Every structure is written in structure tokens, then in C-alpha cells.
Amino acid sequence: MSVGIVLVSHSAKLAEGLAELAAQMAPDVTIVPAGGLADGSIGTDYDEVVAATQRADRGDGVVLLYDLGSAQMTAELAVESLADPSSAVVADGPLVEGAIAAAVAAQAGEGRQAVAEAAAAAGIPEDLEPAEPTAGGAEVELELRNDVGLHARPAAVLVRTLSEFDAEVTVRLGDQEADGRSVLALMSLGARQGDRILLRATGPQASAALTKAKELVDGNFGE
């Protein structure tokens, strides 16, 4: 099981499209859109949000994200009305970036609070730091041969995989370096097909993490 996610939006199309996108990065996570009013018009439907939250809860709780202020109020009221309000939390983060970050965290098996924190942190700009030499550890240079490089789905696959190892991994492109645990940071590198990236890892399972990362890249991330 994993933490479920509910996307509360004034637009049914926005919620459904975002749920479809996030599901590509977190295939084992229940992501339920709750957008628009019952008649198809713009707005948020309290009853629909409550029902969506109940559908999303598979035992590990639910994180709700919202687009605009009144959607936040609807989400919070829905949580308060649950038989166990502590089973769900409304995350204060950007809907699109937050949904992606939350989905990846849930896929990695993180708990409800950690998933909510991942969504909230997605709203904080991540400055790419100039890469500096690091003593020790292991590293491997890889060429991206898949069509889209380190865009959304491949970045999410890499993050999910690296999270399985007891290792700190960074990914370098040119003079910029990103945290291997952050989908948004990896996407911000702008690594495209044909680019060569350098992965550096430290920790007990550093070598194993890099070996698995190489398998992913060599296999075009399963595309």
C-alpha cells in the first residue's frame, strides 16, 4: 500500500490531466482527481472531494493538494468531515509541481507527512549549485540516449530507483549539479538526448546505486 493523493481543482480537466501525468511517475499510487462541479462547470464540489478522499485511502492515509484558495477551504472541510480526520492532510504546495513530488514520494513508500512535505517543498525554488570535486565515493559518467533525456518520467524513475539504496547521489551536467532525490532538481538540469551526465555517490551502497542507475540509463529508462 501507499499514501493516496487527491487533486482538488476548480477544473475537472486540469485535475484529470494532472492525475494522468503523475500516474506515469507513480504507477502504484492511487491518485484521484476531484475537479469542477457536478454539472461540469468551474468550481469545487465538497461532496466530490470527500468521496475522492475516501477512494484514495488504501490504508496509509491521503494527501490532498489544491489549486486556488477556495479549493483549499473545500479540501480542509472535507478532511474535517472524515471519520478519522488524522488520516488525511492538506498540503500547502503548488498543485502541479507538488503533485509530481508527492506522487514520487508516495511511490517510494514515504509516509503521509513526508509525502505532504515533499509537495510543500516543491514550491521552494531549488538553486542548482556549481559542481565541486568531492573526496571519496564512487562515480560514473553516462550518456543519455533516450528521446527525452532527464525529463519528467525518466527523472522520476531515476529518483525512485536511487531511493532504494543507502546512498547520497548527485547528478552533474556540465558545471551544474542536482540532488538525485529530487525530480524537479533533475529536470532543472535540462539534460537532453546525447548529453553526458556524471553521477557521484557516497554511502554504504554507493556502488550498487550507481550500477543500478547505469542499467536504467543503458536501458533508456524502460522506454
Automatic annotation (TrEMBL):
GO MF: phosphoenolpyruvate-glycerone phosphotransferase activity
Keywords noted in UniProt: Cytoplasm, Phosphotransferase system, Transferase
EC number: 2.7.1.121
Catalysed conversion reaction: dihydroxyacetone + phosphoenolpyruvate = dihydroxyacetone phosphate + pyruvate
GO biological process per UniProt: glycerol catabolic process; phosphoenolpyruvate-dependent sugar phosphotransferase system
Matching SUPFAM superfamilies: HPr-like (SSF55594), PTS system fructose IIA component-like (SSF53062)
Subcellular location: Cytoplasm
One Pfam entry name: EIIA-man
Domain HPr, chain residue ranges per copy: 137-223
Complex and partners: Homodimer. The dihydroxyacetone kinase complex is composed of a homodimer of DhaM, a homodimer of DhaK and the subunit DhaL.
Protein name from the UniProt record: Phosphocarrier protein HPr
UniProt organism field: Amycolatopsis eburnea
